[in-house]
Amino acid sequence: MSIDLSEKVLDRIVAELNENQRLAVTAPANGRLQIIAGPGTGKTKVLTSRVAFLLLKEEIPPHQIVVTTFTKKAANELTERLESLLGDTTIDVSKILVGTFHSICYRVLMMYGKKLGIERYNIADDRDADHILKEMLAGLSDLELDTLDSLPDEETVIFRPNSGSESKKSSGYDTKKIKRQISKLKSSGVKHDTYERSASHNKALSLFYRKYQHKLQENNLLDFDDCLLYCYLLVTSFPVLNFVQHVLVDEFQDTNEIQLQLMYEFARGHPTDPSKRDNVTIVGDPDQSIYAFRDAQAINFEKMEKHYLKRYQEPCRIISLTENYRSTSDILDISEKIMRQQQKRVVKSLKSQTKRSFKPVYYNLTSAEEEAKWVCYQIEHIMALPNTPFMYSDIAVLIRAAYQTRAIENELVRRRIPYFMIRGRAFWERKEVVAILDYLRVVAHDNDRIAYLRTLNFPKRGFGDKTIQAVERALELETLAGRDSVYSALTAMVQGENNELKLSTKMKQTLSSYLQFIHKAREMLSNLDAEITNGTLDSEKRSSKLAELFELIYVHSGLKQEFSKDENQELNIKEVEKQFCEFVPRDEELPLYHGGSESEQTQDDRNYLARFIHSVGLYETDDDKKENEKKESFHGRVALSTIHGSKGLEWPIVFVPGLSEGLLPARFAIANGGPEAIDEERRCFYVALTRAKTLLYMSSYTSFGSGMWNIVDTVSRFIDKMKGTTYVSDFQDAFKSWDTLTQLYSHIRKTPPSKDMFPFDNFFRLYKERLTPFIKGETFAINEQSFKSAPNSLVYGGMGFSSAAQELGKKRRAVGLSSSSKRRPPIIRQANGTNAISGLNNLTSNVDSTLTNSGFSLNSNKAPKYVSQVAPRPAIASGAKNNKAPAYIPSRQRPGSLHSKSSNRAPR
């Protein structure tokens, strides 16, 4: 590539950056750089441009650059942006070692794992790990159980279930709690034998950890934490990555201890050239570190500084990005004000690049139900604005814990506001998706025991529970005996060659049919692999043949008959097929390291199916994108999400309800977490606030529930002192005058309405006046038409504003006139000489007409069957069927779980 072309491309890239972004991107490759990128400051743009600079200006070959991202989506986005930026050059972006820490580590282990004795290991997903743990607990010997029983309570109580839900097979221990404690050790880089030798080890945990690892090893499996742990052991023992010249880490605030150590090792560099060692760029924001429950450490910024200061006697270079392109100045001001409550924090002064700003709204209610009504009230007024400046899809409601959506979902359903859940249930965890993946696994692998066990009797083939358990025990013995594969062990059962298990003739026939189908699918896969390897298929033919293979597996497995009756399940299966047919395996070979030989490397001989399955398991996959993007109408749907699920996303309008002590901050953090836990809760709040681009609504509720477990009686410490300050308003300031409303339209680049066509005075007056009756349960239409036909005034009663019919009844009773009286009512003169009763009658008539035309009747707290002006009937994604409010399901996570003994970590 010519120098002129390289400089021309680089000049184009740099020209689009602001001053601090330019400094960060063009910093010398040789050194340690921390880019502190606050929300909305162009982090992804800077990271991509930084990689382009290293390739163009510093002339680092692509295969000598490592980039770690937090998700598969981020890795793909980075690659796509680089391809676009460098399209005029000859640089092969695909050679960059980019991906999540887990995917990169597995790639290294796949190539050099035999140095540690873990050649050709597969990945155990979360379901596999749970299966292994249950088997481990069920297989504890009497001696081991006696040993556990003899331990002091403080060593075993953390592993006991909170209720009797755990089966006897788990020996009275909670697999999730065991898994969590083992994961914490692995995230700190501690192997099971190292832990056993530590003086202060927990004897119960030591036993569980050792036996769990042995079970994984027996099945040739690594869990997700093992990918990092064993890669760390590999790169600290062998210089297999000493060809790497520069390491970049995205979302650095979300790294844990072992990922920090892996970064150091990845960047260890060339054995003889000091200029190619310890060259690191990290991008992140300590204020957005909210994954402590995954062992992420905000302190890693400080640890990195100290590590390299000790090694080089010079500090890391730190460049802060301060120009915010997302949020208005009012949103940034309150976000920074909240964060300044935290001790020992570097003050951040983000500058909004928007011209206009609107004060955030904050309101305190008296119950979760009232708060939900308040949220809907605000949403409906936003949607009632003329010319539709916003769509439902521009709005998000962000909550701290998933159970908080219950009241909000109920009210959204009641008010016919369409919505969907972000990451409510991951696409790859759905029953039908899990089932088809298990069948893909048994076709891809001879020895995937867990997948075989899950597919043997799903869909049901007539195997009873006892038969399945006997097969499971027999397969476990075969595994221990070192038989070549599960497939061959099952074949031996069909042929009557297994001395441990005798099957009936019918069972043998059923099992034989199952194995024949797998054999047929494998033959097709083998032929397909050969054609793909030889390059005899163009993309269209390859896709067609992959679809054939998928259909064979789907039909002959029995899954098509099982799921075809449910349209959603069928569509989800089709989505897996689409991804399977579009999947293009990447070349995951690594360059030979300096001083290495090809004999040290293991050749990648995985078939197409195995590569596809690993790509699904190793990356943090997105939810069903189609489900999330599906439109109920032209206006889309409101997004509901936990704050953790919203990270990295943004919306023009954001609601943050539940700002009460015990909710945010969460009760477990208040009770047991200490200052750091409270700081993390504050960072959660900060992340939620900074998802908003234009309008921000915050709310809390304080009430005493019917039981001690649901008392929420104090406003959150994070927001308590903000009420009454210049930072927040009780009502939306963008609605307070015609000028501010037109400024809102101008800010979002929409055409303002004509003042003659929209009754703005009515709109703002009723917006304020009708809030109290609405949250107290009165029902009325909120749409553009309702403001045009609204009365000039509403009468205020002692308990708030009430409907005209109710007020008329009060007036009649006040003058001694019943509804059945035939006496002519006395004429009551008002100060202006008008007839009060006549005025009330007109008022009643006007309101009756308005509400009837809108589909509502007076004094009804029930939603109408259909209200075209409010919103079309939605298909709720949360499980609320037939437009009824979703049932309160205890297993979903009860509100009381925050206050129970089991609650010792943040809800995910």
TrEMBL record:
Residue numbers binding ATP: 37-44
Catalytic activity: ATP + H2O = ADP + phosphate + H(+); Couples ATP hydrolysis with the unwinding of duplex DNA by translocating in the 3'-5' direction
UniProt feature, compositional bias: Polar residues: 899-908
A GO CC term assigned to this protein in UniProt: nucleus
Keyword Chloroplast among record annotations: no
Gene3D superfamilies: 1.10.10.160, P-loop containing nucleotide triphosphate hydrolases, PCRA, domain 4
Enzyme class: isomerase
Keywords for this protein: ATP-binding, DNA-binding, Helicase, Hydrolase, Isomerase, Nucleotide-binding
Disordered as annotated region, ranges: 872-908
Domain UvrD-like helicase ATP-binding: start-end pairs: 16-328
Superkingdom of the organism of origin: Eukaryota
Annotated EC: 5.6.2.4
Record has Hydrolase as a keyword: yes
GO molecular function: 3'-5' DNA helicase activity; ATP binding; ATP hydrolysis activity; DNA binding
Domain UvrD-like helicase C-terminal: 329-648
Biological process (GO), any one: recombinational repair
Pfam family, any one: UvrD_C
Similarity annotation: Belongs to the helicase family. UvrD subfamily.
Protein name: DNA 3'-5' helicase
Gene: HPR5
